[in-house]
Predict the 3D structure of the following.
Amino acid sequence: FTGKAQVDEDMLEELEAVLIQADLGIKATQSIIATLREQSERGKPVDSSTAISLIQEEIVRILGEKPPTMARAESGPTVIMMVGVNGTGKTTSTGKIASMLCASGKSVVLAAADTFRAAAIEQLEVWGRRSGATVIKHQESSDPAAVAFDAFEAGRARGIDYVIVDTAGRLHTKSNLMEELKKVKRVLGRAGTGAPHETLLVVDATTGQNAIAQARVFNEAVGLTGVVLTKLDGTARGGIVVAICSEFGVPVRYVGVGEGVDDLRPFDPREFAASLVS
Amino acid sequence: NLSAKLQDVFKNLRNRGRLTEKDVDLALKEVRMALLEADVNFKVTKDFVASVKARAIGSAVLESLTPAQQVIKIVFEELTALMGGQSAKIAFANKPPTLVMLVGLQGSGKTTTCAKLASLLRKQGKRPMMAAADVYRPAAIKQLQVLGSQLNIEVFTLGDKADPADIAAGAVERARSFGYDTVLLDTAGRLHIDEEMMVELERIRARVSPHEVLLVVDAMTGQDAVNVATTFNERMGIDGVVLTKLDGDARGGAALSVRAVTGKPIKFVATGEKLDALEPFHPDRMSSRILG
Ligand SMILES: Nc1nc2c(ncn2[C@@H]2O[C@H](COP(=O)(O)OP(=O)(O)OP(=O)(O)O)[C@@H](O)[C@H]2O)c(=O)[nH]1
Ligand SMILES: Nc1nc2c(ncn2[C@@H]2O[C@H](COP(=O)(O)OP(=O)(O)OP(=O)(O)O)[C@@H](O)[C@H]2O)c(=O)[nH]1
Ligand SMILES: [Mg+2]
Ligand SMILES: [Mg+2]
């Protein structure tokens, strides 16, 4: 008797299927299964409920036990910049975050820095009304950096607590659009020390492995401080954030669970890990 | 990439002389990895690899001097055959107007695709109009109206307090009286598990009997693509798929997943934010993209 525990290969295969179907991706999945196999080879036999809690522990470890609190400016408005590819929920999430902040007694200005897409400004204005935030906008096709700058200046002048900059959706493969985003960030940095204090990548939970490329390019371009994972009210599990956290160390801040103004929750790593594999 | 990985697999096995089934299994492991990395659904991948194996074992792979190339060739051919083969055109009604309805998850690109399709059909000699049936999303109607005015294509609306089925019916009526031969109906994004919203789609369909229902799917969709496609197909009966945002670098495995579970063809691909960025689907190009 070697003392080596039986590794139930069928069970491991089943767990691998669960993780892959949750969009963890083959790389993150294989590393988690390897950790599991290692643990079970150290002698303790691993049944499926033990395996599941070991996997959840590992996922929580990768995601970070407790996401750090949002950064705050030392003086002047705290600036949050929302970025991401097209259609992920940036504008909606901007409205939800604004509403949450206004409800807690903070004052909020929204910068309508998507000056390109049809009715983008009108869409944000509706969210301004719903949340109680003021919307700063320019003409369509104007310079997004100029809108961001104006919004910051208006915020600073009026003693506003938060300025949230909603940017246009852009594919990370479009270098001219990524340059435009870098300019928005530079201009904010010149307007206010440390701005933007938070840069949140908005990721659609239905996204597959491409989310990793999105995170990599946006992180290299403007530096990410967090992720907002949207549309978790669907059937997609959003497992790609595990790979994002593991590779870039960017924590998930909030999850979007619907289209209404209150459909935003702070991220709970344990609850999320349990939803991926249970 | 897959070709290089397969070369490696077979290089190491080469010295043992003739290849065995076990050697092919090693190669298929790489194929499976490549498909999963490309976001092809887990179960669809399993079935696909099994069909590739059946062909690989039965074919010249075991005898071949270039087994890696043989495997790639089989995979590429199987993928292309699976995704192609069906008519990828819109089926126009014998008696106009033809009603084309766009459905899908939130943010997949329906509104933009609606305008692009209207523009494309006009270039093909049709007289299209659009109908704004998304009464939920802030400024959704405005969004379609702005696109309509950019194209100089009429957008029918009853405002955001109206019932989407009434909007659809009103649009068809408008088309009949003004001689439009195609109506492109833009609907609100919705979850396939939102019962109320799926019932709304069924009510619209019952009311106006669309000739063509197109499911709009984001090319970066992961494993969830099969759940979405299956449900929309079961509830609505889709006639085809539009795959959007192919101007990015998503491998687009969702294309294979959706085709495999619904049997419906991908009719168009959207390749940008501009209104001329809509092309017919090419299964061979999609296959090489998926294989990376
Ligand atoms: N079900 C669900 N839908 C959401 C969620 N967040 C956003 N949406 C929907 O997703 C769609 C796109 O949202 P937007 O806020 O316009 O996305 P965006 O990233 O600003 O889009 P672009 O600016 O065009 O890149 C809308 O229909 C939203 O209502 C969510 O958490 N759950
Ligand atoms: N790069 C790129 N962006 C696209 C493409 N198709 C649509 N978009 C963008 O994706 C975002 C969402 O497009 P919409 O047309 O609003 O999507 P939708 O499905 O109507 O969204 P909802 O009505 O909220 O469900 C917008 O920013 C579009 O410009 C495409 O093929 N390529
Ligand atoms: Mg937006
Ligand atoms: Mg729309």
